Input
Amino acid sequence: MSTSAVSSGRLLALAVLRRSLDHPAPLASIRARLASKRRRTSSGSASPRCAPPVAMSHSDRTGEDGVVDIDLLGSPQSPTFGLDTFGDLEREQAADADGPLIGHPEAIRQVVAEAVLADQVGVDFFGVGEHHRPDFAISAPDVVLAAIAGQTSRIRLGTSVTVLSSDDPIRVFQRFATLDAVSRGRAEVTLGRGSFTESFPLFGLSLDDYEVLFSEKLEIFARLLREEPVSWEGSIRPPLEGVSVYPRTARGLVAWVGVGGTPESVARAASYGLPLVVAVIGGSPGQFAPLVDLYHRALEHYGHATLPVSMHSPGHVAATDELAREQMYPHQAAAFTRIGRERGWGQYTPDQFEAGAGPQGALFVGSPETVAQKIAWAMRTLGLSRFQLKYAVGTLPHEQRMESIRLYGTEVVPRVRELLAAGG
Amino acid sequence: MSTSAVSSGRLLALAVLRRSLDHPAPLASIRARLASKRRRTSSGSASPRCAPPVAMSHSDRTGEDGVVDIDLLGSPQSPTFGLDTFGDLEREQAADADGPLIGHPEAIRQVVAEAVLADQVGVDFFGVGEHHRPDFAISAPDVVLAAIAGQTSRIRLGTSVTVLSSDDPIRVFQRFATLDAVSRGRAEVTLGRGSFTESFPLFGLSLDDYEVLFSEKLEIFARLLREEPVSWEGSIRPPLEGVSVYPRTARGLVAWVGVGGTPESVARAASYGLPLVVAVIGGSPGQFAPLVDLYHRALEHYGHATLPVSMHSPGHVAATDELAREQMYPHQAAAFTRIGRERGWGQYTPDQFEAGAGPQGALFVGSPETVAQKIAWAMRTLGLSRFQLKYAVGTLPHEQRMESIRLYGTEVVPRVRELLAAGG
Output
């Protein structure tokens, strides 16, 4: 995650927006997808460089079938709250900091149990991220989410993120449309490029194609969202000629775009009319205001109504600030030191942790009151519709994750709602 | 499904086996996978043309962890019984034979409900097949199975089949290893080439590569089953160089090979030491005896212990023979006439149905007693360890499918066990 990419702020953002204006993109009505579903017009005639945008509708204005109700995703006035995990592995013995990790199957079942608890304590969204490394158990998020769907009835289920660059956009659509069916309309997918690169050699892809793989696959995916026959031509695969993809969904599939700090990615999400998740795992949430501003202006430019922005950040909740920090620090330090070794960063330090845990840092760690205050501040600062706490922190034990989830659902979320309501 | 391929019987089978003897394949001990997991020897040094075979173990002889217990899959002495579906769509109004079909989401939820009932009435296995057509709702079997896993605790969950040729073997392994975790060891995957070809253009593949795609992907998959670093080189993707794939499973993943009537496919399944599912949807089960015989001789040749053979055949159970046939016929006729149009077959006729429904045909339709007698006969004739009834028949209504499942679990299966025990 790069915060430097946004450091030059508005100037860079404006330049990107200006550049993106050079791409002619068709204006879209807010009911474009619904209308297109009804008219059954062919999307095959559209220019292959400019996908027909996908649009979503507010339920209060339509109440119609066949269109995604974006109010389910949250709004600044009525936000939603989520929890994210990558299926991190705890130690077999918590006390033995160098001991063996638990097996992947057990870690996956812990995630299912955590999601069931999140559903029970009123959390709105549960997201699982995809990795292809021994230290994370989840490489097939949709399968984990479908198991959760079978044991919950309310919580929305998505990814944080699905690495679209190294997947097949048609398979991704099929898997999440199927998840939407088994969960009765609770599926969401967040498409991103991921911050790890293991999936490229694994699936026979070259990192040289990092950009074209994502952009062409996102283009295909955006067309699939219309649930009409798709025609497309590009460089990464043979052309699609009037291809239909099944299963269809009842009301359309919710797809977000997940970004780190790259303005180009933000402008692209806006051009497709897709809601945005910003991963803020370093620096300060406030530094992302120019990016969020760019997103809203780009949405307007492309003729889309306003859409939700969510933020994904790591954290941990416990009874007191002291306990939460004490529990989180060793696992956060070990995880960042391990990953840092691969990326040439230095050792993770107590100072880094303190900066993140401070009032404007990117770590949401502390007592329910501390975390609630900080989330409310970040949501106000960025005008967020959703906040997603990445509650799993390396080897932090399942038992402590469960307590963090319980406190998040029963104390943090109600308190944030209260603070936001009071703040106008 | 071709029965002509087996019509020349033993001679052809022997020729195939003789041809397959020309491929040098390493002998395997029955505990090869377990042993290899323990020794952590590298599989990278093996010849790229000859995969290390995968072996399974009988629980009564080992009881060890880390190895698939094939007795869970059934044996001729203690067979298991399954149900299969592709997620066929019924009509919105059963009485309106030309009316609209229900939506895919509802059809998928019907499949989940059918699996839950199958679990409740004691069926051992539930398999869902993958298609990419509007008339079948299931294109992502693993997601459907994971939802079922979340609502069941006993029934084993697999595919009938997973079209490996047009999928990524690494993704398939990841998805089913994840299913194995969420279902606590109940996952199975059946790898096949499918009898439809829609998936080839959909995923950018050429039918010219039909054979090489399957054979190289099966080779990769067989290596993945060892759950060790994999090295491999071939023509369909860049080489794999000591790649590890996650998640790991607790006791190994069960993988079958599904075949139509091709002796080469049977010999190949045996060379990898993988159990066999034979799809018998035309002709008579008896005609498949030479194929099954070839499989057993090929297993012996490759140094594998005996492995289960299963048979997948269509059918329908109702209170009486008359009712079952009356209910099944119009849907079977409509489905085969529709598919026949695509493949240049003639109209499906009542005579065809009668031949299939007769004592030695491939349709298992009738009262519980009739169907039980026929299954027992087929299992004895072929020495089967498992029988899988493809109970969904085109637009046959969900309600009739549910009654068929109930009768299958509560009456047919117990009666088959009784008949087999009595017959020695």
In short: The mean pLDDT of chain A is 87. Chain A touches chain B through 55 residues (CB under 8 Å). The longest strand of chain A covers residues 309-317.
